[in-house]
Amino acid sequence: MRGVLALVVKELRHHLFALLGAWALVATGLVTAFSMVATRQTDSVLGAGAMFCLFGMPMFAMIAVRRVVVIERQDGSHTFLAALPVEPWQLALAKWATALLATWSTALAVVLASALYAQHNELAPPGWVALVALQVAVYLFAWHGVSFGVAHTGRWRTVVWLAILMFGAALQTRYEAQAALWFGVLRDPVDQTRYDPPFDQFPAALAWGLAGTAFGMFAATWRGGALAEAAWRPQNARQQSLVYGLSALLVTVVTVVDDAYPPVPRYDALPQVGPGVRAAGSAKELGAAISRDLAAAAFLGDGLPSVVVLARHRQDPFPLDVLSDDGGAVVLAVDLLRPLPVRRSVLDTVIHTRAGGWLLYEPDRAFLTDGTGAWIIDGCASDLLRRRAAYAARLGVTAADLADWRGLHERLGGDVAEGVSWAGLCALEASVGRERTRSFVARVAARRSRTVLSLVDLLAVRWDPASKALSEETGLDVSAFTARWLDALATARSQAPEVEDLPLLTAVITRRDEEGAATTLDVDWGAAGAGDPLPTGVSVRWTEIPRLRDRPDDWPDQQRLELTTEVTSVPTAVPGHHPIAAALSRTEPTLDGETRSPWVAP
Amino acid sequence: MSSVLHLSDIHVRYGRTRVLSGLELNVEQGAVYGFLGRNGAGKTTTVRTILGVQAPDAGTVTLNGRTVRRTTAAMRRDIGYVSQEQHFFDWMTAQHLGWFVGAFYPSWDAARYKMLLERLVVPPKRRAGQLSGGTRLKLAIAIALAHRPKLLILDEPTAGVDPVTRRDVLDLLQDEARSEGRTVLFSTHYVAEVEAIGTVVGVLHEGKLAYEGPLDGLRDTPGGKRTLEDAFVAIARGGVPA
Predict the structure, then answer these.
(1) Which one of B76, B89, B99 has the shortest CB-CB distance to A85?
(2) Is residue B132 domain-resident?
(3) Deepest of A11, A100, A146, A350, by most Cβ within 10 A of its Cβ?
(4) Residues in chain B closer than 8 A to A5 (CB atoms)
(5) Residue A487 lies in a domain
(6) Whole domain around residue A577: which residue ranges?
(7) Are A125 and A209 found together in one domain?
(8) More confident residue, A494 or A171
(9) In CATH, what number is assigned to the domain containing residue A272?
(10) Quick check: A416 and A370 in contact, CB under 8 A?
(11) B83–A87: do the CB atoms touch at under 8 Å?
(12) Buried b vs exposed e over A247-265: b needs ≥16 C-beta within 10 Å?
């Protein structure tokens, strides 16, 4: 035992300066990863730490093994150790343990540092930090074990690495076999597995790590390490040619195999799901309801994605988070306390997913999202949606507004716009019946269900606008339908007199430019129709108006700044003299949603 | 006298190359065994087999009365070993090495190690990487002797060292044999070294011993005495030992 301890101490001291250098590199890498959070390239500090472990720490593990195994072979010092009264397995175990200790302790430090830093910025409870640490530990155990095994293949290790990684990756791609390699236990972003830990990937990773370890131990101990000894023997020209030849052959074969069998669509970070809804744990009840909703939405046609519903434990104004919507399935983390908004949002999400995200920019999206989910789930008997439609009517909606749905949506906010859209579909149903309304929605949906908007697609869409579909499926032209829609809004207002007492936010917002980056918005606000005192929970929303050449992805997120009746001057961090737009916002309990003042450009 | 080491019918081959083929070797207690052979004759392979670093394809090793196919780590505690080239960890000083190596030997004598370093003039606090080849050899000998091994094995220890160091080393070995009764097996191709301190000689040729016995037995021929070097050359060229 004393001998093994001496070996471990020797290894640590032997590689101390290399370890210190590696730690310096790790610290630098971690700071770089954190800076990605600061520059908004990624959202989660803990995710950035995990990402560093995903991409950076395998190199650490490989180098650690290389140092403890390979370097002694290369400088001949293994012969000094071999002559000591120590068993080969003790030598191998000491090296294996030392390298793993160094790798694990460094990775654990990375995860803990990330978790501590994250405490001020995001929800990173100890349970999740522990889960991430476990994922990282298993992932690096696999890297370490495989590296340990490969290191004992001596001068053949390049070929062996190629064989493992290239054939493993080809198998994984060709057969969607996540377990072909050990990469499934940790993903980027790690948030994707927050509510659905990839425990099913653990056996494969552990098996790889154990297999690599077992082979390394076998090679190091069988007949006193005769196998490793033979593998490290200098190669003659024929053997070197064989190494290069095998490497080239591997690359060629894998390339040919990959080309011959194009990979099936990747379900990045998704658990394997079949058709329908998968829901885990406490989300099962809601999952069953969503399953019924999706069945009711089947008239939209084929191609609705499968849905995985997971419980979300984070407070957020939005009822759900889309964790992934790639490859024909969506993974949703939902707020279980708000089942109805969740159900409506799920339908919106799957419709959006089917359309590849382009729906946001379509003028006729009013018939597909916003109120469509509510119409499918609630029919035309929802008091809440009627109140929202009534509130919109009180704010004033014209035929021109309905023709400019995106503008109207922005003015009203998503919740009230949902009521307007719902009222339109109900008006159509009242005119032509539910079946014909469904036919119209289904036809629009079929036209918009494109993941690639090519020029041909674009022309096809333009040749079959919603107005044409409306006419052919319902017999109504746009003007007739618009008139009935406006009537429906007016009817809703008459049926929901309680919205007449709701406050209408008004604001005069001026901007005081100051030196440097900070700007102050002076807000003079009120609430028409509100009693005294003024309503609470009002905030200023502002956004930088992008220059025309900016891509949508570059638009800054809308900012929310809390406002009280006492505080009407809002310091902001608007850069330079960029133009901004601002509006007041408030969650109205009667509407169970957001209301807005008109947008102003201070 | 009892036998400390006995190799019986040892066969070792590297691929298609047969290195040892039926080697029989016997070292008696207290002997200073000069193990002669040409370069590439298999001396180092024999030493590695004795140490258990090399597993023989066939044959047995008997060490201190215990017969095994391959020498175990526990049996190695009774052996002191000095290799042909000293592959220490360069960052370790002699003191570090004493601490490290001593952890593997229950019989490690730190005071004796310190005494040996002083006698061989090895600086205890200088890193191994900064020592000359001769000093590294002396350090290896000090390490090999500090745990009072029953058998000391040296694999061509004086190859490439200066005459003064060579003399120091040979004197030390002779002292160890005389005063401590240490059994010594040293391989070499320098016949003069065997003549200087050896009591028994074994000549390795074509994978087995062509001669094993007292030095005079090798010198004596029916036609009279010859030098040991002549006898060795005759064997190495395929001649008969006597």
Answers:
(1) B76
(2) yes
(3) A146
(4) 103
(5) yes
(6) 502-596
(7) yes
(8) A494
(9) 3.30.160
(10) no
(11) no
(12) beebeeebeeeeeeeeeee
- Assign residue B80 the CATH number of its domain: 3.40.50.300
- The whole-number average pLDDT for the span A494-517 is 78
Is B53 at the interface with chain A, CB within 8 A?
yes
Q: Which of B45, B48, B53 to mutate to test the interface with A (most CBs of A within 10 A)?
A: B53
Opening angle at CA A26, ends A20 and A30, nearest 5: 145
Number of domains in chain B: 1
Mutate to test the interface with B, among A10, A74, A93 (most CBs of B within 10 A): A10
Domain annotation covers residue B91: yes
What are A132-141's pLDDT values in tens digits? 899 999 999 9
Are both A105 and A219 inside the same structural domain? Answer: yes
Hey, what are A266's tokens? 């990747």
- Distance of residue A83 Cα from the nearest chain B Cα, in angstroms: 7
Structure-token match 């403890």, residue found = A68
Looking at residue A190, what DSSP letter applies? G
A411 plus A428 within the same structural domain: yes
State yes or no: pLDDT of A368 exceeds 70.
no
The residue from A458, A479, A497 where one domain ends is A497
- C-alpha to C-alpha distances, B175 to B32, B143, B153, B156, B169, nearest whole angstrom: 11, 16, 15, 19, 10
Q: Chain A closest CA to B141's CA: distance in Å?
A: 13
Chain A residues touching residue B83 (CB < 8 angstroms): 79-80, 83
**Domain residue limits at B133:** 30-53+70-236
Could you tell me if residue B24 is inside a domain? Answer: no
The single residue listed with the structure tokens 């994605």 is: A305
Rounded to a whole number of angstroms, the distance from the CA of B144 to the nearest CA of chain A is 10
Q: Exposure pattern of A101-116 as b/e (b: 16+ CB <10 Å)? A: ebbbebbeebbebbbe
Contacts B74 to A, Cβ<8 Å? 85
Cβ atoms within 10 Å of B204's Cβ, excluding its own: 25
Interval A40-51: pLDDT, tens: 566 677 888 888
To the nearest whole Å, the CA of A550 is away from the closest chain B CA by 59
Cβ-Cβ contacts under 8 Å, B72 against chain A: 87
Alpha carbon distance A570, A585 (integer Å) = 14
User: Which positions ≥6 away from A495 have C-beta within 8 Å?
Assistant: A386, A390
B53 and A82: CB-CB below 8 Å? yes
